[in-house]
Amino acid sequence: MTKSVFYHAGCPVCVSAEEDIISLIGEENVERIHLGEDRSKIEAAERAGVQSVPALVTPNGNVLHINFGASLEDVKK
Amino acid sequence: MTKSVFYHAGCPVCVSAEEDIISLIGEENVERIHLGEDRSKIEAAERAGVQSVPALVTPNGNVLHINFGASLEDVKK
Predict the structure, then answer these.
(1) Nearest to B4 among A24, A60, A67 (CB)
(2) Among A33, A26, A17, A29, which Cα is nearest to A69's?
(3) Of the residues A16, B1, B66, B74, which has the fewest C-beta atoms closer than 10 A?
(4) Closest partner residue to B58 among A20, A63, A64, by Cβ?
(5) Domains of chain B: which residue ranges?
(6) Min Cα–Cα distance to chain B from A75, Å
(7) Looking at B23-75, which runs of residues are DSSP E strands?
(8) Residues B9-61: tens digit of each pLDDT
């Protein structure tokens, strides 16, 4: 199975959601990308449809925005 | 493992999120509750911390609000 991609920005809401997602679907099934530390990935996240973090992009390309940590506009600042 | 509980109200956003969640964590690990059809469960959902649907309550009691279909206030109408 292709991995899901979990986009986050290190915010407390993100960390909490990340722990829940890892626990639910398994660490080996999730690639984690910290957009605050790896800003070159912000564009790819936007293209995938990510509007806020934390968000999970599923293997079939759907975006699940989980709770709300920060908008991508805020991450860009 | 205790099951997660997926609360929804049959809205298109809910159905799409439900399919993604089922595909990610497995049908056997999720109890699905349709708050529009089973209104007696609305109070329990609120007590669990659900503010909008679709939402997933994890086995450890955390609430993941996924995308946004409808607020619980709207579901009560």
Answers:
(1) A24
(2) A17
(3) B1
(4) A20
(5) 4-76
(6) 19
(7) 30-34, 52-57, 63-71
(8) 999 999 999 999 999 999 999 999 999 999 999 999 999 999 999 999 999 99
